Amino acid sequence: MLSVPAYWAEAKLELMQRDRIMNKLIPQFGDLHLRGHPDPFTTLARSIVGQQVSPKAADLAWGKLLALCPKLAPSQVIKVGAVQLAGCGLSKRKTEYILDLADHFKAKRVHADLWSQMEDEAVIAELVQIRGITRWTAEMFLIFNLLRPNVLPLDDPGLIQGISQNYFSGEPVSRSDAREVAANWEPWRTVATWYLWRSLDPASAAN
Predict the structure, then answer these.
(1) What is the tens place of the pLDDT at every residue in 136-180?
(2) Other C-beta atoms lying within 10 Å of the C-beta of residue 13
(3) How far apart are the first and last CA of the chain?
(4) What domains appear along the chain, each with residue ranges and CATH number?
(5) CA 201 remoteness from chain centre
(6) Chain centroid to CA 25: how far?
(7) 71-110 burial string, b = 16+ CB within 10 Å, else e?
(8) Which pTM does this prediction carry?
């Protein structure tokens, strides 16, 4: 079951009170909200599959991977092996990344059971030790799996574009500009980021 962040309603109210753009933007999406993805391994594997390809290509490869590994357990992925994984449409590098991710989980070289108790930066530091996991990927994991309320993914093009369009009339935005705007959102930067994503792509507002 996809989970709803417990802080969402409070965050919406506070953002609307202190930020005039959020005050206009948030009501446009009614009761829609971020929906969490509960399984850590699946969340990270899906992010690797989706790197640097179109959403359509990612969905196709992901569907083939799920058909090959219905439970998508780390041990199942390792057992299937590189050749069959590549047959799902994954590049050689992504195949290696998925296998390395599975190996980390199976060998318990990551502390998935402790992540909910760890600080954001500590989780990021552990995740980026896995091949194919960048800081951006780790931040998406904090948002969509751990439902952390105050993540600001400055490497995310959608966030930067959303700030540009909503706060700077479409003018280019630097990372320092983005940080300055986002300072007003704390401690709810995840929530503000989600609404800026939705402002660019209203059709995906249920995700």
Answers:
(1) 999 999 999 999 999 999 999 889 999 999 999 999 999 999 999
(2) 12
(3) 13
(4) 8-36+151-204 (1.10.1670.40), 40-144 (1.10.340.30)
(5) 16
(6) 21
(7) ebbbeebbebeeeebeebbbeeebbbbbbbbbebbeeeeb
(8) 0.87
